[in-house]
Structures are given as structure tokens and as C-alpha cells.
Amino acid sequence: MENKFSNKNKTVAENSMENVYRMNNYYRRMKIVKRVISHIVLIIFAIFAVFPIYYVFITSLNSIGSLAEASLSDLLPTSHSSLANYINILYHHPFFLWLKNTLILTGVSTIIGVMLSITSGLALSRFNIPLKHAFLYMLLILTLFPFTMMVIPYYFMFAQLHLLDSYIGLIIPYSAGALIYSSYLIKNYVDNLPKDYEEAAQIDGLSRRSALFRILVPMSKPVIIFAMLIAFMGPYTDYALAGQFITSKSLYTMAIGLYYVSQGDIVINYGTYSAFAVLMGIPIFILFFVFQRYLVSGFSLSTYK
Q1: Which residues contact 57 (CB under 8 A, 6 or more apart)?
Q2: pLDDT at res. 11
Q3: In this structure, are residues 294 and 226 in contact, taking their beta carbons and an 8 Å threshold?
Q4: What DSSP designation does 104 have?
Q5: Which CATH topology does 93-300 take?
Q6: Which positions ≥6 away from 140 have C-beta within 8 Å?
Q7: pLDDT interval class at 5 (50, 70, 90)
Q8: Which of 46, 66, 105, 259 lies deepest, with the highest CB count within 10 Å?
Q9: Measured between alpha carbons, how far apart are the two ends of the chain, in Å?
């Protein structure tokens, strides 16, 4: 009798262990399947993300006159690939002059716009300003309108002020554009910062203004850098406003130079266009690579409320 019970218990234990082993194998296989599927999905999305960059780069190595001439064989490096487009841009055109003009214009407008947005963002976050909410909604609405809508009004206004064909006529609207969006970003970021730090600084003897600039500004470094990058991108890549305001070749920016260099007799020379786009994207790539650790925190904590 005891042998029967012991054999039965032994059989139940073996069956339970076998079931546990089967379940472990099942979950292990499912984990592997999920990992393989997730990797496949990520690879597909990575291909979609990287392919346009690869296409622009490989096009810059070929002498493609137009998109109609492109074929599947142009997607692969061949013996006909060369750096002729890059050499043409760097040695036969004032590329570095255009780069210097662009960096001066974008640098000045970015500094002015972000400095003003820091003060306005701190004020909107920490001070009880009359009609503050109405002003915030107005800023939010202004960010929804495309910048190109202001080209004609700006043109007529600055023509009356004799500011066309000068950097001052571009710095003013670029700085204003950076101010509108960056103020809202910085305001939302500062809203998430506790007031204990600035209150403790005031107890230690700092004035309200000193507490704001010496405590909150260093703490807001991620969103300020993020705002600077966004403010830099606008003037750096803008053609709509710069193309209408600037007529002197010595004042050309990179965007105007891109249009000037890539224009053929009938169609756009896409090989030259792509090479110029690659060269133009290098400073942006360097900036985003250097400040990438600030981008996630700056964007995540400054989203609209």
C-alpha cells in the first residue's frame, strides 16, 4: 500500500516537474520569438530612417542630372562614383564664405532670440503677469502658423526701413521667431522645477532677480540648449526669407548658395544638390552629436501642457 502511494506521489511529482519544464521551454521560446520579431521591426524602421541619408550621400557621388536619370544601379557605389561634386562646390564656389555668413547670421539671431526667451520664459513661469494665460495661448497659436506667411509683410516693412540686403533685416525676424517658440519651451520646463531652490537662495540674501538667473538658469540648461538648437536650425536652413532679402553675392547664406550652385540650364543638378546638402548637414550633425544628452530631457520636460 505504501509502495502504491509512494509510486503515485513520485509520478505526480515527475509530471509536475515535466509541466514546469515544458512551461519554461515555452516561455523561453516565446521570449526568443518576441525578441526576433522586435529586432526585425527595428531593422525595418532603421532602414526606412537611414535610406534617405544613404540615397543623398550616394547621389552626391554620381553625376545625376535629374531624378528621371536615376536607376537602381545608382544606389550602389560603382567605379564611376567620384568626389567631383564636392570638389566643384569647395573649389569653384565661395562655399566657405557662405558658411561664414550663415554661421554669423544664425549665431547672432540664436543668441538674441534665446536670451530674450530666457527672460520671458522665467517671467511667464514665476510672475503673475496680467493676462498671462491669454498671452500664452497667443504664443501657442503663433507657433502654428508657417514662417513663410510672414515673408511678404516683412519684405514691405523692411523695404521701408531700408534693411533689405543686410543681416539686420534677417536677424530681427529670425530672433523673433526663436523667441516665440523658445519662450514657451522654457516656461514649461521652469514650471516643473520646484520653487524651494530659489526661495532658499532668497533666504541666503539673494534678490529675486539674482535667484532666478543664478539658480533657475543653470537648472534649465537642457531646455536652453534644446531651444538654441531649434533656434539655430531655422535660420541655418531658411531660404524663403533670406532668398528674398539678400541680393548681394557676398552676403549669400548656405541655403541661397545651395539654390545657386544646383541650378542647371534646364533642371536641377541633383548630384551637386546632394553634395551641397551633405556638406551643409555636417555642422548640424556635429551640434546634435555634441549636445545629444540634453535633447531628450530638454524636450520631454518642456512639452506643452
Answers
A1: 274, 278
A2: 60
A3: yes
A4: H
A5: MetI-like fold (1.10.3720)
A6: 184, 304
A7: very low
A8: 105
A9: 75
Give which of 254, 239, 227, 244 is closest to 103, Cα–Cα.
Answer: 254
Residues in the chain: 305
CB neighbour class for 42 (10 Å; exposed up to 12, middle 13-18, buried from 19): exposed
C-alpha radius of gyration, the chain, whole number = 29
Residue 144 burial class via C-beta count within 10 angstroms: exposed 0-12, middle 13-18, buried 19 and up: exposed
pTM: 0.77
Question: Grid coordinates in use for 6?
Answer: 509512494
pLDDT value for 106: 92
The CA-CA-CA angle for residues 23, 27, 33, to 5°, reads: 145
pLDDT band at 156 (very low <50, low <70, confident <90, very high): confident
Quote the pLDDT of residue 304.
Answer: 47
- Determine the Cα–Cα distance for residues 232 and 178; give it in Å rounded to an integer: 8
268: β partners: 263
- Residue 227 identity: A
Q: What is the dihedral of CA 142, 146, 150, 151, to 10 degrees?
A: 160
* CA dihedral (130, 136, 139, 141) positive or negative: negative
CA distance 73 to 125: 56
Contact predicate 305/191, CB 8 Å: yes
Q: What is the pLDDT of residues 208-220, one digit of tens each?
A: 778 777 888 888 8
Cα torsion 92, 94, 98, 99: sign: positive
CB-based contacts of 228, cutoff 8 Å, min separation 6: 110, 114
C-alpha cell of residue 74 = 545608382
DSSP helix/strand/coil, 190: helix
